[in-house]
């Protein structure tokens, strides 16, 4: 399970969006597979980003 939040505001007259995501909230071990490969899934990961429109 993944979670995310977004906050949009104006800073100095510029539209700005902040995003925060958490991937694999439960920090469970899992495997991803295709026809010929098997790889371990990523651990819990935190992401923070900002976007400004000029």
Range of strand content:
over 45%
Strand order of the largest sheet: 1-2-5
- Overall spatial form: elongated
Helical amount among residues, as a percent range? under 10%
Largest sheet: 3 strands, antiparallel
What class, by secondary structure content?
mainly beta
Instruction: Work out the helix count.
Output: 0
Low-pLDDT residue intervals, each spanning 5 or more residues? none
What does this structure look like?
The chain is 0% helix and 61% strand. By secondary structure, the chain is mainly beta. The protein has one domain (3-52). The protein has a 3-stranded antiparallel beta sheet with strand order 1-2-5, with no helix packed on it. A hairpin with a 2-residue loop joins β1 and β2 (14-23).
Brief rundown of the structure:
The protein is an all-beta fold and 54 residues long. 0% of the residues lie in helices and 61% in strands.
Detail the topology: elements first, then pairings:
Elements: E1 3-11, E2 14-23, E3 31-33, E4 38-40, E5 45-52
Antiparallel strand pairs: 1-2, 2-5, 3-4
């Amino acid at each position: 399970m993944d979670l995310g939040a977004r906050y949009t505001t104006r800073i100095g007259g510029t539209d700005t969006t902040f995003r925060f995501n958490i991937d694999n909230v439960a920090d469970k071990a899992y495997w991803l597979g295709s026809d010929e490969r098997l790889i371990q899934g990523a651990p819990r990961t935190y992401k923070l980003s900002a976007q400004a429109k000029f």
